[in-house]
TrEMBL record:
Substrate binds at residues 298-304. IMP binds at residues 13-16, 38-41, 128, 142, 223, 238, 302. The keyword Cytoplasm applies. The active site is at residues 13, 41, 139. This is Adenylosuccinate synthetase. Belongs to the adenylosuccinate synthetase family. Pathway: Purine metabolism; AMP biosynthesis via de novo pathway; AMP from IMP: step 1/2. InterPro entries: Adenylosuccin_syn_GTP-bd, Adenylosuccin_syn_Lys_AS, Adenylosuccinate_synth_dom1, Adenylosuccinate_synth_dom2, Adenylosuccinate_synth_dom3, Adenylosuccinate_synthetase, P-loop_NTPase. The gene is purA. It comes from the Bacteria. Transmembrane segments: none annotated. Mg(2+) binds at residues 13, 40. It comes from Streptomyces flaveus. Its cofactor is Mg(2+).
Amino acid sequence: MPALVLLGAQWGDEGKGKATDLLGGSVDYVVRYQGGNNAGHTVVVGDQKYALHLLPSGILSPECTPVIGNGVVVDPSVLLSELSGLNERGVDTSKLLLSGNAHIITPYNVTVDKVTERFLGKRKIGTTGRGIGPTYADKINRVGIRVQDLYDESILTQKVEAALDAKNQILTKLYNRRAIAVNQVVEELLGYAAQIEPYVADTVLVLNQALEDNKVVLFEGGQGTLLDIDHGTYPFVTSSNPTAGGACTGAGVGPTKISRVIGILKAYTTRVGAGPFPTELFDEDGEALRRIGHERGVTTGRDRRCGWFDAVIARYATRVNGLTDFFLTKLDVLTGWEQIPVCVAYEIDGRRVEELPYSQTDFHHAKPVYEMLPGWSEDISKAKTFADLPKNAQDYVKALEEMSGAPISAIGVGPGRDETIEINSFL
Ligand code: GDP
Ligand code: IMO
Ligand code: MG
């Protein structure tokens, strides 16, 4: 059985953690391939709730090997505190594998992220302040620090020196901050080395051998399609590729190995941070979605911006990821509305536009064209099959499927593992 990719089809927080956890019991490996601890994935198992940031959601399934791939950026202090937090709750994390090629989020890059945002003022991106962007920038500029560098003090010192040469100029001369001392950074990083060492592995080799042995590998995206550095609403994006292609580069697995790409799609839309959002609501409906859907960031605690479902975005996600399936989440949150508006197209400067415009200016001007779908009032949280859903909820799902361009193979009707309607098996 080849590999599957599971990724966000909107602006993140679609319920990827729950979906990954659901499949975690039936797969051999769960792999994070991009992003870092900017992610916040909530998994509810029985009466236990877990918030994962850096670790793959598969860490909660004992049979499964969790892997942090080369494309991820790793804050060692966050990694260790997340591991010890899970150990304290009785979760065995000893199977974790961490790529020696993954880049390290250094303390100075967390500083640079925060300072840059402050200086951008009203043009800020609204980042999570975790050092993600500056770390990927260092990677591309070839001055990044990798996990393997923690095991060669001389190389580590040279690399930190090279990175800080330029960075200290910027911090002191442009941003009016104090310079950061090389030895302090090196000392801090070396302090993590021994604790991290047992997890470090050649993950590319491990994953490819696993696929040759017919093991099932699930790639878990962070963030979402519209936050992709290439395909998202640039510059209001994250600095990596959550889209399906990112799984190949971020884990070192060829595209021919991937058989299924599952897009996680919320039954409405949310966004955290700045940037365009055509269906955003500023009225009591938006408030109600936020309240009923508990739409508050897992990582930063910020309120999420809320709006109606946007089929233009869903179609775009199908295209740029080659989606084979959707997992529709949070359908239960829509219970109680008499009518539910769904955005089927945009109006841009008087024109009707059916597809996501590539032009940033056009997208900023896009106004949603809504179709009204009849709502339902019955509690759907106990539904186990599609037939258990009220007729209007079934029709809502069918309409979304038709508009979005890929089959909806599962439906979430609550946060728990078992609050899921499975229509087509993913495995
Ligand atoms: P992720 O970043 O994509 O993993 O999503 P988050 O965990 O940030 O946000 C999704 C939230 O929705 C979490 O609190 C989940 O527990 C919750 N959730 C996931 N699926 C469902 C669902 O079908 N119904 C409801 N009511 N909540 C859900
Ligand atoms: P999960 O995996 C929602 C957003 C930030 C900001 C932008 C850039 O839980 O879906 P960054 O810190 O990455 O440089 O911030 O991206 N963002 C997310 N929004 N869910 C996430 O992750 C996000 N990770 C980053 O709010 O707008
Ligand atoms: Mg999240």
